[in-house]
Amino acid sequence: MPLPRRLIIVVDTDIKDRANTLAKRIDTVGGERTFVTPLYPAGLPQGAPSHYWCSWAMTDLDDINLRALRSALSTLDRTKIRLFNGNIRTPESVLAELNLATAVGRDEG
User: Hey, what domains does the chain have and what are their CATH numbers?
Assistant: First the structure.
């Protein structure tokens, strides 16, 4: 069954643990590991990650979970979390808009 709903979520490093705790409330199987993929300022060859992200896919039946996740995340500092419609945005376009890169995508200096 295709997963018709996708949300790309980017959080600042300093709220990653709280975001994972909230995600665990929605996804009891693995939610605590939702934000484990680090992102770095594009072009910087070293340093700690500045953000973490996930791509959350759900079926139509999971719509209530999507609403619950968005509601839970809205309790965090809204300047530190960014939500993107993954059905119309690619991960690459999100990274470009936020001037971020994955560890693989960073310049090696």
Answer: 5-101 (3.30.70)
